Amino acid sequence: MRLPAGVGACRRNSDPASSIAQPGIVRLVANEQGLRMHAFRHAVIAVLVLLCGGCGYNTLQQQDEQVTAAWSEVLNQYQRRADLVPNLVNVVKGAVTAEKDILDSVVEARARATSIQATPELINNPQAFQQWQQAQSELGSALQRLLVVVERYPDLKSISGFNDLTAQLEGTENRIAVARKRYIEAVQNYNVTVRSFPTNLTAKMFGHTPKQNFTVQDEEVIRVPPRVDFGTPAPESQPPAAPPDDA
């Protein structure tokens, strides 16, 4: 017996098995798509890890940290020198009153050197780095002139604290030279990595740029630490010889 069309449709729509199977299929498809996306994400991460391992990302991070550490040591030693200057000036100013211009130049050079705020970002600013380097160079030159002048005053070595201060200053200049050398080497390695292919692509992607380095204009002077030697006093000027008496 043939049923009316409406009745058959009602039976099909009210089939319990069909109503249960359709949501199950949808969930199965959704789970399968989720698993595929999960596997795809893991595959992308694995590829990125492999690419980063060969593109110099880790090398850039390590060298950047080495530059930062070397720069911190440079600043530490320059600050140590700046801290010694006031004590040295106070010790010698009473004995070398005739050298007021030299003392004033040291004080002024220290003021200029310490007025520039030395921060980790300074090595990324060429103009600020150049100003800071120039100020430190001027202070070093002023200190060397002062120590050359005080050699003419052997009595200074009997002043309490003078010998200790000059020894500390000489040691600090040696440490500055070592710190500068390490910083120069660290920056050279970093800058080569930043500029070389294919690591330069990674550097651009993550914002790594070449860092500032010391110039060589004063390297020869900086390598020679100031010394004070009172063992050989400056020769005294001899009066001109009297003309011989006429017979």
Topology:
Layout: H1 5-13, H2 16-55, H3 57-92, H4 100-115, H5 126-150, H6 162-195, H7 199-205, H8 219-223
Helix pairs in contact: 3-4, 3-6, 4-5
Q: Which spans have pLDDT < 50 for at least 5 consecutive residues?
A: 220-241
Shape: rod-shaped
Largest sheet: none
Annotated CATH homologous superfamily of the largest domain: LemA-like domain
CATH class of the largest domain: Mainly Alpha
Tell me, rounded to a whole number, the average pLDDT: 78
Gap between N and C termini: 172 Å
- Rg from C-alpha positions? 38 Å
Features:
247 residues; mainly alpha; de novo design (two linked rop proteins); 2 domains; 8 helices; 70% helix
Explain this structure.
The protein has 247 residues and is mainly alpha-helical. The chain folds into two domains: 38 residues; 168 residues, LemA-like domain (de novo design (two linked rop proteins), Up-down Bundle). Helix content is 70%, strand content 0%. It contains eight helices and no strands. Helix 3 packs antiparallel against helix 4 and helix 4 packs antiparallel against helix 5. It is rod-shaped and about 105 Å long. About 9% of the residues have low confidence.
Short account of what is shown:
This protein has helices spanning 5-13, 16-55, 57-92, 100-115, 126-150, 162-195, 199-205, 219-223.
